[in-house]
Amino acid sequence: MPIFKARIQVRLKAGILDPQGQTIAHALQSLGFAQVQSVRTGKLMELELTAENREMAEDIVKRACDKLLANPVTEEYSFEIEDVEEDVAV
Amino acid sequence: MKGTMQEPEVTLELARQHGLSEEEYEQIQKLIGRKPNYTELGMFSVMWSEHCSYKNSILLLKTLPKDGEYVLAKAGEENAGLVDIGDGLAVAFKIESHNHPSAVEPYQGAATGVGGILRDIFSMGARPVAALNSLRFGSLDDPHVRYLFRGVVHGIGDYGNCFGVPTVAGEVYFDPSYRGNPLVNAMAVGIVKHDRIVRAVARGEGARVFLIGSSTGRDGIHGATFASEDLSEESEAKRPQVQVGDPFTEKLLLEATLEMAKEDCVIGIQDMGAAGITCSTSEMSAAGHAGMVIELDKVPLREADMIPYEILLSESQERMLVVAKPGKEEKIKQICEKWDLHAAEIGKVTERNQQLQVFWHGKKVVDIPADSLVVGGGAPQYERESRRPEYIERLHGEDLRALPHPLDLADTLLKLLESPNIANKSWVYHQYDHTVRTNTVVAPGADAAVIRIKGTKKGLAMKTDCNSRYVYLNPRRGTAIAVAESARNVVCAGGEPVAITNCLNFGNPYNPEIYWQFKEAIAGMREACSYLGTPVTGGNVSFYNENPDGAIHPTPTIGMLGILEDINHATTAWFKQEGDLIVLLGRNLEEVGGSEYLAVIHGKVSGDCPQLDLQRELQVQTACLKAIREGLVQSAHDVADGGVAVALAESCIMNRERPLGASVELTGYFRADFCLFGESQSQIVLSLKGAHLPRLTEICNEYNVAMRVIGEVGGERLRIGELVDVSLQDMMDRYYNAIPEKMRIVAIE
Predict the structure, then answer these.
(1) Confidence grade of residue B1 (pLDDT, cut at 50, 70, 90)
(2) Which residues contact B411 (CB under 8 A, 6 or more apart)?
């Protein structure tokens, strides 16, 4: 079965307080990066999965995000899927 | 463009969408002499909501005893209750619910619940020294319940640990009635020197008003009270209802607040919780019979395009409103700068004009009497219709003596020990730091927690309690039992109960049966608190706790505070030494209604709750405390869920490192299962050295307390006459593994 690679970005919804991002922004400003106005943090996850085709892979990743990888109350996510070349995989 | 969004026209319909009734809308117009604008309507709607106005509960709450020897700030006067503990010190303490936010987002809901109650404490100038929490969930067999349980415990742990307050005690209950509507009641306790107490009041013409702490975002502006049609969809999408906690900022806010109190910089401080700027400005003004002028464009914002309505209603966390002493403004700014916090001067106090006036870029957007918004001022107060529910008669009428006898009582005991309501909760409290600040003398897992007060000989004992099955079966007596039991727990730990705070979790008050439960519960609390001399210093009310099948069991959680005159009186519940005698104080009656035994073994919540004789309760507590203070007692454990048998088993195995067996004779003139597992009140299991028995007997005679020597500590087993004979290991396997095993089923959720 073909192997796919999914890169999933999970980030806080707009307007949700991001204490970590604020702390980073503050630290950057203290270090002299006065240009930095704000920082928002998130997560990047890479999954390898098998699926019959790209559509099936998208469906699996979407369900995984809804169920576990993102918190639908506070976070939103997006992802891209790419084929993993057989010869690279070996 | 800032603030130029077209505001909707205020109509009765819009007021209704804001949760206000027609009468309330008319009342508002009468109070301000005109139609409110959109911003003002929002302020009234949130201040007259159940949460802020206590409109359906305040009349009954006023009937609770508030006065006591030690009470410095009475219920409703300040952010939290305040009790004198001598040595020039006072204790601030309060419990509050965060049920609905925790149902939506368990981690952040519980975390911000902890944050909110801590601010209530330190806004009075007190340093938080302990946190407790009372948690209730549906059955752990439900994966969603496990998700909520895990998230809530994690949220409490992370916030408390990061802030640096020990989470020392509490309770966790599981019952199907809480499915979909968990209860998260957080309590905090703080200590303050008398001359550093800060009040939540605004006084002094021209005194400057500061907003300190985090910037203001669109947190917690509820969809239900937000008529959004006329605002852009973009702003709708930007409006998160979930508040996110930032415990490190809270820690900074704590230190800054205490430093301001120490440097005598402030006239008053109030924290911002529900209804944010609206609530703190109006309540502080009303408390000082003053008004305020606020320039809203000076509020530091997290998002640039917020409108006055949103800024006034935002529930962004980790903020305080400070009224400065004249001449101390610069000092306040310096202190905040040192602690890396915003300190924005946003307005001033007006003593001659008791209006709350809010300006937005020079334009007046709000002009209403400050006290029109608040409890005791313009906010409405209702007495609702009440009706005794039918279920009570039906359940009281059930003949529990007709129940089948269990064949194997030892097995029954083991089943009770692994019931999540009784089983050890270390899965929960091992996620909490309970020793930070190094004052914890008796940690979680005992009857009540004890912390020492550094610099004195004294200690504080504290406990939360409520058996909501009892309250469901008999709201009045069940609530009295919650008060009595929390006091008994404090006594068993060596403390003298002095005052309570309460968190009243009920269903919808517009349902006459729910209101009846509430009314009866208040009556029971009044009786017990008056008799036991533990006044009510405050707390909160949470209505509308419903699951798809109906209301939760009525749950008036009691947070009890006790004082140990000498920290050496601190006593724990587990047996200490082979050969010690085991004594049962109080009387075991033939009653089993509402018991854990009935629920776990027979699958019933039925009968009436146990009897309670307040005179006998007080006698037992007084005798027990006296014996502890005289140094006679090795261990003291109150008889509660699971009855005498479970109390004995717990005393054997609660010290996991050093369990001790016991041999006991327990005879009654009634059914063995009722005798072992019935939950008769006013009973305490003590252990003591044989040499102390004569003196204990004297004390019990003096206070007219029934006492029996029932056995002796020792061996590897718990033997109760011919009825039960189980090994310590078997009991421990069940008691300690039950909850971890249920929570191990994680991966597939």
Answers:
(1) very low
(2) none
Q: Tokens representing B387?
A: 């009706």
Per-residue model confidence (pLDDT) at position B228: 36
- CA-atom Rg of chain B in angstroms: 26
Query: SS3 letters for B615-679?
Result: HHHHHHHHHHHHHHHCCCCCEEEECCCCHHHHHHHHHHHCCCCCCCCEEECCCCCCCHHHHHHCC
User: Percentage of chain B with pLDDT > 90?
Assistant: 78
Closest CA in chain B for residue A68: B749
- The single-letter DSSP state of residue B171 is E
In A, minimum Cα distance to B217 occurs at A15
A37 → chain B, closest CA residue = B302
Fold type of domain B199-381: Phosphoribosyl-aminoimidazole Synthetase; Chain A, domain 2 (3.90.650)
* Contact criterion met (CB < 8 Å) for A17 and B303: no
Q: Which residue of B has its CA nearest to A72?
A: B105
What CATH fold (topology level) applies to the domain B403-423+571-749? Answer: Phosphoribosyl-aminoimidazole Synthetase; Chain A, domain 2 (3.90.650)
Would you say residue B225 has pLDDT above 60? no
Beta strands in chain A (DSSP E): 3-12, 42-50, 75-83
Q: SS3 of B135, please?
A: strand
For residues B351 and B135, what is the distance between their CA atoms, to the nearest angstrom? 44
Cβ atoms of A73 and A12 within 8 Å: the answer is no
Domain ranges of chain B: 199-381, 403-423+571-749
Asked if the C-beta of B237 comes within 8 angstroms of chain A's C-beta atoms, the answer is yes
Counted across chains A and B, CB pairs separated by less than 8 A come out at 43
Say whether residue B314 is in contact with chain A using an 8 A CB cutoff. no
CB of B349 closer than 8 Å to CB of B268: no
Other CB atoms closer than 10 Å to residue B185's CB: what's the count? Answer: 30
Q: How confident is the model at residue A90 (pLDDT cuts 50, 70, 90)?
A: very low
Nearest Cα to B184, choosing from B110, B121, B94, B104? B110
Phi first, then psi: what are they for B649, rounded to 5°? -60, -45
Residue B5 above 70 pLDDT? no
In the numeric block, which tokens belong to residue B81? Answer: 């209750």
> Does the beta-carbon distance from B105 to A17 stay under 8 Å?
no
Please report where in the chains the tokens 């009556």 appear, as a residue.
B523
Q: Give me the active site residues of B, please.
A: 51, 98
Sheet holding A42-50, edge to edge: A42-50, A3-12, A75-83
Q: Taking the CA atoms of chain A, what radius of gyration do you get in angstroms?
A: 17
CA distance B546 to B544: 6
Whether the domain at B199-381 and the domain at B403-423+571-749 fall into the same CATH topology: yes
Across the interface, of A14, A17, A73, the residue whose CB is closest to B104 is A73
CB B87 within 8 A of CB B100: no
φ and ψ of B508, to 5 deg: -80, 115
Q: Is there a contact between A23 and B316 if contact means CB atoms under 8 Å apart?
A: no
**DSSP of B383-449:** -------HHHHHHHT--GGGSPPPS-HHHHHHHHHTSTTTS--HHHHTTS---TTS-EEE-TTSSSE
Q: Do the Cβ atoms of B242 and A16 come within 8 Å? A: yes
**Phi, psi (rounded to 5 degrees) for A45:** -125, 140
Tokens of B295: 């320039």
B238 and A15 within 8 Å at the Cβ level: the answer is yes
The beta-carbon neighbor of A74 closest among B105, B237, B238 is: B105
B317 interaction partners in chain A (CB closer than 8 Å): 17
Yes or no: say if B211 and B321 are a contact pair by the CB < 8 Å rule.
yes
The whole-number average pLDDT for the span B150-174 is 94
Q: Give CA–CA dist B702/B588, Å, rounded.
A: 20
Mean pLDDT computed over B666-684: 91
